Amino acid sequence: MRTLLSSFKNFAFSGNLIDLAVGLAIGAAFAAVVESLVADVILPFVAAIFGAPDFAALVVTVNGSEIRYGSFLTALVSFLLLALTIMLLVQAVRRATGREAAGAQGSRECDHCRSFIPVDASVCMFCTRDVEPIVA
């Protein structure tokens, strides 16, 4: 029982789990800010252009059944505006922090030990042998 508690304590307080928890909390707060930006600032501009804040009134009736395609259009427009806003914010943060040109992402197999290493690595982190970085 003691080893189980010790293992759980090591797992729960390891750096990766704490980093994940902090990342999720910050991500949730960031999502709330971006959703408010879209709902309270951007969608009113859409409402000014199209004359309505959403398209929920658009309905087609087929054999007595309502197909509310307007609600789908509203959700689609909200999603697209949210994605565009997040993209622009991330690009602005990257430019402001100087992280515009990040290193290559992905992994490849080491020629010597067959372990997976980053594509731009010049030394294998497992066998410590020199490898040629793949530059695109």
Explain this structure to me?
- 56% of the residues lie in helices and 9% in strands.
- The protein has 2 domains: 2-102, Non-ribosomal Peptide Synthetase Peptidyl Carrier Protein, Chain A (Orthogonal Bundle), CATH 1.10.1200; 104-136.
- Helix 2 packs across helix 3 (69-97).
- Strands 1-2 form a two-stranded antiparallel ribbon.
- The protein contains 3 helices and 4 strands, in the order H-H-E-E-H-E-E.
- With 136 residues, it is mainly α.
- The protein has helices at 2-12, 15-50, 69-97, and strands at residues 60-62, 65-67, 107-109, 116-118.
- A hairpin with a 2-residue loop joins strand 1 (60-62) and strand 2.
Relevant terms:
136 residues; mainly alpha; Non-ribosomal Peptide Synthetase Peptidyl Carrier Protein, Chain A; 2 domains; two-stranded antiparallel ribbon; 3 helices; elongated
**What's the SSE pattern?**
HHEEHEE
Low-pLDDT segments = none
CATH architecture of the largest domain: Orthogonal Bundle
Estimate the mean pLDDT confidence: 80
Number of strands: 4
CATH class of the largest domain: Mainly Alpha
Biggest sheet details: 2 strands, antiparallel
Break the fold down into its secondary structure elements and pairings.
Layout: H1 2-12, H2 15-50, E1 60-62, E2 65-67, H3 69-97, E3 107-109, E4 116-118
Antiparallel strand pairs: 1-2, 3-4
